[in-house]
Amino acid sequence: MPSTSLTLLASATLVKQGAEAKVYKSTLHPAPNLASLAPDKVQTDASQPVYVLLKHRFQKNYRHPTLNASLTRSRVAGEARALMKCLRAGVNVPGIRMVDAAEGTLGIEWIEGESVRVVLGGGEDGEEIQDDEQGADADIEPPDLLAVFNVNQNDVMVMIGTEIAKMHLADIIHGDLTTSNMMLRRKRSLLSTTSAENKETELLLIDFGLSYISALVEDKAVDLYVLERAFASTHPDSEPLFALVMQTYAEKSGKDWKAVGRKLDEVRLRGRKRSMVG
Predict the structure, then answer these.
(1) Residues of the chain with pLDDT > 90: what percent?
(2) How far apart are the first and last CA of the chain?
(3) Is 144 in the active site?
(4) pLDDT digit string (tens) for 18-42?
(5) Is the pTM of this model over 0.85?
(6) 5 CB-near residues (< 8 Å, 6+ apart)
(7) What is the chain's mean pLDDT, rounded?
(8) Strand-pair partners of 182
(9) What percent of the chain has pLDDT over 70?
(10) Fold of the 114-277 domain
(11) Of these residues, 176, 219, 237, 265, which one is catalytic?
(12) DSSP letter (8 states) at residue 143
């Protein structure tokens, strides 16, 4: 009898494929009973599907099957542990819906929103930033996504710094901090009685496939340096924006910032030397 994850994958829609995994959109049935959280305030429809993101680590033919199975189980379980640790620490990350380490599948909450990379005008993943006169749609004015989410750039930077600080205080290293791995969404409070009430925007960190647990200041500094380089390459003239990220991170990190900030300066120096050597 096929596992639950294989059954879900069979009817899922492929969204994206990377070097390590395929990402699908699927549904869970029956829908969770959210009314149990606030019976008098939440109206739910059990017939409505609950979307889930399925991350399937497919088999690598160049690996021995036994080694492949062991690595897959370890990485799926590790990503799930990191997400659970984030959730316990109050970090905004997608909720876990299912874990099937044997089949290499992790099911997490589907986020209806947009990546920070796109919101800030960096384009979709894998796209190069084009000159204004290039492209067939150059004359089409893109939507103002900041207005859609009712935030400004400074709001987003503060949210980024806050979530990363909470993550590092819990000794979780993301391993791939880029604006592509951050999502904005409009959230309606579960206690709201109408769709127009209590709306707010929140930022979530996603894709913990390279994450690990570490209390080392060096690892936290490298995490921040990766994000700094991502800002520089994806969002031109973003130095003031990243400075606000770091200011917020320092405020939220408290006494830990002094050591992390000092180590970050060392990491930056090593990075510049490496760039000069080539």
Answers:
(1) 60
(2) 54
(3) no
(4) 888 999 999 876 555 544 444 444 4
(5) no
(6) 54, 56, 98, 100, 103, 105, 107
(7) 83
(8) 205
(9) 77
(10) Transferase(Phosphotransferase); domain 1 (1.10.510)
(11) 176
(12) P
